[in-house]
Specification:
Layout lengths: L1 H9 L8 H21 L2 E9 L7 E9 L8 E5 L6 E5 L5 H27 L1 H5 L3 H34 L2 H5 L11 E6 L4 H25 L3 H6 L6 H14 L42 H7 L1
Antiparallel strand pairs: 1-2, 1-5, 3-4
Helix pairs in contact: 2-3, 2-7, 3-5, 5-7
């Protein structure tokens, strides 16, 4: 328990409020919705066959199908209405490949988003070490964005085929009894496809989230940092060379000429000297007070 508390205390939970961590949490949540609405689907349609011989009629024929939509394995028994009993029929089509591919991508995206969020919060230093973590994260994000687009498009096409194959009017065309005008066949209700439609929507929403997150992951990589280092402009180079030549041009704020006797070192001294080089006798003027001036007079 103490280890768990220390781990929680060391976590950087502010990362979840930043775009990178927040989008990862949304990806994790939307991935759950995607594979739950598709992988947990069960549909049912119902048709009725009213034979001329009422004893052979079956007014409630229920046909149930589930994920992964191997419809060619779904069978049902219907009356033949010709006195020969009942016949076994199968639905048409196998759409398991697109459905399973979609669910597989959703499950792996769920696992990666969860793992990446844990790394962002508890292992931020390890993630940024040697720039390896952001680069791997960037590549995986690009790959998942592409896979979400492909899987969602494939499943959208597969779903449209499932709707056609499970349409009660299409199922009635498979029955021998319905080809005779003396018998009456009609659909009772169609399967509810709202859950599967929602799965397609969540698939494309996941693509948008992952594609949008590419930019925020790219900003964490060294590629983005190196792109910000622009070469020095011409104006900066000219300014730098001018400052260098100006500093080497002989003007020194600490001394102004060897013969002037004027020195700015340390400010303005209270005792200064003025020398005449032209042959006259040296005189000194000392600002030490009126007493020294009287003595010289």
């Amino acid at each position: 328990m103490d280890v768990a508390n220390k781990l929680i205390a060391s976590g950087t939970f502010r990362t979840a409020k930043e775009p990178l961590g927040f989008l990862r949490l949304l990806e994790w949540l939307f991935a759950i919705f995607a594979f739950a609405t598709c992988g947990g689907y069960t549909g049912e349609l119902e048709v009725s066959v009213d034979c001329a011989n009422k004893t052979e009629s079956d007014l409630n024929i229920e046909i149930e199908f589930t994920y992964p939509f191997r419809l060619h394995q779904v069978y049902f028994d219907v009356p033949t209405c010709d006195g020969k009993g009942r016949e076994r029929l199968f639905l048409l089509g196998d759409y398991s490949s697109s459905a399973e591919f979609f669910v597989t991508i959703a499950v792996f995206a769920f696992l990666y988003s969860l793992g990446a969020t844990v790394v962002y919060i508890f292992f931020q230093n390890k993630y940024r070490e040697n720039n390896r973590g952001p680069l791997i994260d960037f590549i995986v994000t690009v790959v998942f964005s592409f896979l979400w687009l492909v899987s969602s498009s494939a499943w959208a096409k597969g779903l449209s085929d499932v709707k056609i194959a499970t349409d009660p009017d299409e199922v009635l065309l498979l029955m021998t009894a319905c080809k005779q005008q003396s018998n009456k066949c009609f659909p009772i209700h169609s399967p509810v496809m709202s859950g599967l439609n929602t799965s397609v929507v969540f698939g494309f929403l996941n693509f948008i989230l992952w594609a949008g997150n590419i930019w925020f992951v790219f900003k964490e990589t060294g590629w983005h940092a190196s792109g910000q280092r622009y070469p020095q402009s011409t104006t900066e180079k000219q300014s730098s060379s001018y400052n260098q030549s100006y500093s080497q041009g002989g003007y020194d704020q600490e001394s102004y000429g060897p013969t002037s006797g004027y020195n700015q070192q340390g400010g303005y001294d209270q005792q200064s000297s003025y020398s005449q080089v032209g042959g006259c006798s040296q005189q000194s003027f000392v600002q030490s007070g009126p007493t020294s001036f009287t003595n010289q007079m």
